[in-house]
Input
Amino acid sequence: MVIPIIIIGIVAVYESSKSISELARDDIASIAESLAGTFEVGMNEQLMTVKNISFSNSVITAAEKVAKDGGKNSLSEIVSAQKELTKIKDGEGDRFSSILITGKNGIVFASSDSGKNNGLNLAGRDYLDKAFKGVPSVGSVVFSRATGRVVCTAASPVYSSTGKEITGSVVIGMELKLITDIVDKIKIGKGGYVYIVTKDGLYITHPVKDRILKENIFKDTGREALSELIKDNQSGITEYTSDGVRKVAAVSPVKTTGWSVVATVPVDELYAPVTFTRNIIIVVGVIFLILASILFYFFARSLTLPMGKLVRAADSIASGDLSIQVATETRQDEIGRLSRSFTLMIQSLKEKAEIAQKIAASDLTIEVTPLSDIDSFGNAFATMVEKLRTQTHQIIEGVNVLASAGSEIMASVSQLTSGAAETATAVSETTTTVEEVKQTAEMASQKAKHVSEMGQRTAEISQTGLKSIEDAVNGMNRIREQMESIADMVLRLSEQSQAIGEIIATVNDIAEQSNLLAVNASIEAAKAGEQGKGFAVVAQEIRSLAAQSKQATTQVRNILFDVQKAISSAVMATEQGSKAVEEGMRLSTQAGDSINVLSESVTESTNAAIQIAASSQQQLIGMAQVVSAMENIRQSSIQTVSGTKQTEKAAHDLYNLGQRLQEIVKSYKV
Output
């Protein structure tokens, strides 16, 4: 209860503080906005005034005349314009410090003070530059070159009578003291005040006069957020630190001039009502909390004391202690009724505990009477006792049947155990025999495999021999063909050698005839004497050549005779070689036929050996499977023997259980 009150108090303090803070911030924002609105109206009025002056006929005439003929030739027009300016200034009182008319060169040629400021050069002023561009402006704050005081200016262009050309400008100087007096009179609390800055950040008004047009707010540290609002010419509320004091500032722009009105007040002073209200709420809340706590304490005590007794009684009951005594309360409220109900509950639990003790003592002859139809505990006990009686009767009958069945099962299991042991012995012997058969099959398989491998190698060798015989036969055929070719070549060589012999005979005859001719030539040369000496020499050479040719012919004939003898021998050898080749071909063919028959026999033997090896392998696999199966049977028979022994033990235990159960059920009273 206390916590919600505290939470409500905190929320109330927060909301009230927030509301009062917002009201305080709205107040200074209203001050800044109302002051900015006032200046907006005043500046618009001043701007309208300067525009009206620029539209005056005398001003237009004077400016146009000066622009055209110069000041010396326009004195009458200037005097007329000055009279009108003086009349306007006098009508405004101290509001305006001066009204001036300048030419396009920025030099004043007419003023409201009877020409005292004539010749003053205002060239370069920003408001004058705007006017010469055709833009009226207001709000430029400068030190007056005429009076030296701070003034707020308004300027407007002066057009020619045709309205197409700017011939000069009208400038009004408004004393800034008027604005300063208005702003200085506004006080916000004890430490709050209002000041105005230009869009460039220069102070126009400030309680500290030395800052006016000398210091720039943009250069003050800690005022960055405030400076952003001023630069953007926006309204808003922000906090900043100045000279170590935290302050709140409300900014409102004067759109016509670009100024910003700033209303500022220290944060502590602004939120002083918030702090006071918060403190009041806290004090009242604390007092209310103390009173509520005291009241709640006594009220809770009147409830917790009797409830504490009942809780302790409940704890004792929960721990199983039913000997606890609960004092009967005389109170008629819920606490009193709860105490009396506790007493009745304890009495009922004691009765149920006595019934449970009798049931635990195997006495099922008791009768349980529920207190009412909705007495769940009593009805449950009555149902439990009735079901226990029925179940006990059934258990007794079942135990008797179980004992009888246990005896029969034990006898059957004993016989089964004996048979399983004999079966296990027979299976073990059969497994040993099958293992021996498996070893024999392995040896036969290995032998068959060896024979098969030998047969395969023999078949391969016979195939190789058969291929060699075929290659030999083919080689003999090629040799026979070559021998026949050699024989033909030898015959042709014999015929050619005979032709060569005939040619040699012809050459020999030619040599003999040449020799005769040479002799005849020598004889004729001798007859010719001196003239025949040269012919004699030729004849001698021919004779010598004929002798050499005859000698060479004789040598060639001898060589040719030897060649013919060799050819005859070669012909005979060729005939013998052909006969030998034919005999070799016949023998090779017979050997090939024999090896082919042998290869077919070996192949058949090898195939038979392979089939025998495959059959032996399959037989070996079958015997391995038989051995594995017999081993599994042996293991199963061992497990069966073990299982039957366990079954025999279980049957014996079941028989003993039946006997014990018969003894147990005899102790129940039903």
